[in-house]
Amino acid sequence: MGAEWSFLTNHARVLVCIAHDPGLRLRDVAEALGLTERTVFGIVADLTTAGYVVKEKDGRRNRYRIQHHLPLRRPLGREATIGELLELLVAST
After folding, report:
1. Within a domain: residue 2?
2. Which residues form the HTH marR-type domain (predicted)?
3. Phi, psi angles (nearest 5°) of residue 61
4. Is the pLDDT of residue 79 over 90?
5. Could you tell me how far CA 47 lies from the centroid of its own chain?
6. Which residues have C-beta within 8 Å of that of residue 29, sequence separation ≥ 6?
7. Do the Cβ atoms of 15 and 82 come closer than 8 Å?
8. What are the beta bridge partners of residue 63?
9. 77 in a domain, yes or no?
10. Is the pLDDT of residue 45 over 90?
11. pLDDT-above-90 percentage for the chain
12. For the chain, how many structural domains are there in total?
């Protein structure tokens, strides 16, 4: 059997978790995705530095706001936005 692989990068998977619940603790994101908390912290730092996610204090916790209007980092032929990608990945149930 070949190596494990996924259609989505860990960055995309973390972004989907944040889209589902902007108040989710990074510890919970890590557990849900089978990643270390340190890895998730680094990914959120990457997404924040790139401007895709804005971190806001909410009492003692953080809330995350996704900048849906921003284009994807590597366009897929035309300039798709983060919001368009999340519409495909985050089912509204």
Report:
1. no
2. 10-60
3. -110, 170
4. no
5. 7
6. 14, 17, 18, 35, 40
7. yes
8. 56
9. yes
10. yes
11. 59
12. 1
Q: Which pLDDT score, from 0 to 100, does residue 53 have? A: 96
Residue 3 lies in a domain: no
Could you count the other beta carbons within 10 Å of the beta carbon of residue 62? 15
Domain residue limits at 75:
10-89
**What span, in angstroms and rounded, lies between the C-alpha atoms of 79 and 44?**
23
Query: Is there a domain that residue 16 lies in?
Result: yes
- pLDDT value for 84: 77
Matching residue, tokens 């070949």: 2
Q: Which residue in this structure is represented by tokens 């108040």?
A: 23
- Rounded CA gap, 13 and 66, in Å? 13
Q: Taking the model in full, what pTM does it have?
A: 0.78
The 3-state DSSP class for residue 71 equals strand
> 93 falls in which pLDDT band (50, 70, 90)?
very low
- What distance in Å separates the CA atoms of residue 23 and residue 46, rounded to the nearest whole number? 18
Summarised one tens digit per residue, pLDDT across range 49-59 is: 999 999 999 89
